[in-house]
């Protein structure tokens, strides 16, 4: 019955993780918890890097936009999946799928770009501390962010146009919890992949350039840090770049593994788990990773939380 409806409908059917109703509700609740954690963590970072005067350096300016990207990218896929799971209906319309692909790819590329810029920022701060303010002046940082968001939009338009230019004639079942391009390509009944291959090759080259830039930046960073004689200064330098390195390694390794591995006709639970590791886990963990070893971030968080408590106490005492 479902197969017949899926064949004749205009949109697509997202299979998700299970067809058992109880498990669908459980998955929805788990994703809701992760989503709320991601929203809370990233909102806190956006707020403290905006209002705290001690967090106005370029590193925190880029971190604020990274949190904004994380907040956006998890909102593209997870709320739709939660709604589908709770309603017991995996249907997503053609237009919703197009928008999901566009926003997901735009934000994913913007995240790669901003991670590259953040690695250059750490390179300039550690390797050229005396010239750092000139290299990373506010106007250059603003232009870098504008280019990051624009490049993301362009990549999203290219990928979306190429993907939805193909003809879908097979049973419109996507073995994923969101509109995933490899799964969409499997629904084509022809070999009209030329546009997709061209865009993928171009973006792969750009991603390789970004990855190479990150690697070169950290090669220079580590060589500089290891030459620092003071253990305290070495620890301080590592504390500012290790969180970024962890985020880059986790995000790029899972994404590259997912997109470079061959797609199977019957995706396994392992394939679905890998997709979670580059769509849901990074936006949830990034705020924690960046706050663990950064004393300025932890101090700003405490100030924000304790400030709210003090305000409530003063309001209570005044009312009494």
TrEMBL record:
Odorant receptor. It is a multi-pass membrane protein. It comes from the Eukaryota. Gene3D superfamilies: Rhodopsin 7-helix transmembrane proteins (1.20.1070.10). GO terms for cellular component: plasma membrane. The chain crosses the membrane at residues 25-49, 61-82, 102-120, 141-162, 193-216, 237-260, 272-292. This is Olfactory receptor. Keywords: Cell membrane, G-protein coupled receptor, Membrane, Olfaction, Receptor, Sensory transduction, Transducer, Transmembrane, Transmembrane helix. The keyword Transmembrane applies. Belongs to the G-protein coupled receptor 1 family. Signal peptide: none annotated. One of its GO terms (molecular function) is G protein-coupled receptor activity. It is found in: Cell membrane. PROSITE patterns: G_PROTEIN_RECEP_F1_1, G_PROTEIN_RECEP_F1_2. InterPro entries: GPCR_Rhodpsn, GPCR_Rhodpsn_7TM, Olfact_rcpt, Olfactory_GPCR. Residues 41-290 form the G-protein coupled receptors family 1 profile domain.
């Amino acid at each position: 019955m479902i197969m017949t409806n899926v064949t004749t409908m205009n949109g697509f059917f997202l299979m998700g993780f299970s067809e058992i109703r109880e498990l669908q509700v459980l998955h929805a609740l788990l994703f809701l918890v992760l989503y709320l954690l991601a929203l809370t963590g990233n909102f806190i970072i956006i707020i403290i890097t905006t209002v705290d005067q001690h967090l106005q350096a370029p590193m925190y300016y880029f971190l604020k936009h990274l949190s904004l990207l994380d907040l956006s990218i998890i909102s593209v896929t997870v709320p739709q999946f939660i709604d589908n799971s709770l309603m017991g209906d995996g249907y997503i319309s053609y237009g919703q799928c197009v928008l999901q692909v566009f926003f997901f790819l735009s934000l994913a590329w913007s995240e790669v770009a901003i991670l590259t810029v953040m690695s250059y920022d750490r390179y300039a701060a550690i390797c050229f501390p005396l010239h750092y303010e000139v290299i990373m002046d506010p106007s250059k940082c603003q232009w870098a962010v504008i280019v990051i968001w624009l490049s993301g939009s362009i990549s999203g338009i290219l990928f979306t146009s190429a993907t939805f230019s193909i003809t879908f004639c097979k049973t419109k079942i996507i073995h994923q919890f969101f509109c995933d391009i490899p799964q969409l390509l499997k629904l084509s009944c022809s070999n009209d992949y030329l546009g997709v291959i061209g865009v993928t090759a171009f973006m792969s080259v750009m991603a390789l350039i970004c990855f190479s830039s990150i690697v070169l930046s950290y090669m220079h960073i580590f060589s500089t840090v290891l030459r620092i004689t003071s253990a305290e200064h070495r620890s301080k330098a590592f504390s500012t770049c290790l969180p970024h390195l962890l985020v880059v390694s986790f995000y790029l390794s899972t994404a590259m593994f997912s997109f470079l591995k061959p797609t199977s006709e019957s995706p396994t639970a392992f394939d679905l788990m890998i997709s979670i590791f580059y769509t849901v886990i990074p936006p949830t963990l990034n705020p924690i990773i960046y706050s663990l070893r950064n004393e300025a971030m932890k101090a700003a968080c405490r100030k924000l939380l304790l400030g709210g408590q003090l305000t409530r106490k003063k309001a209570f005492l005044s009312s009494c």
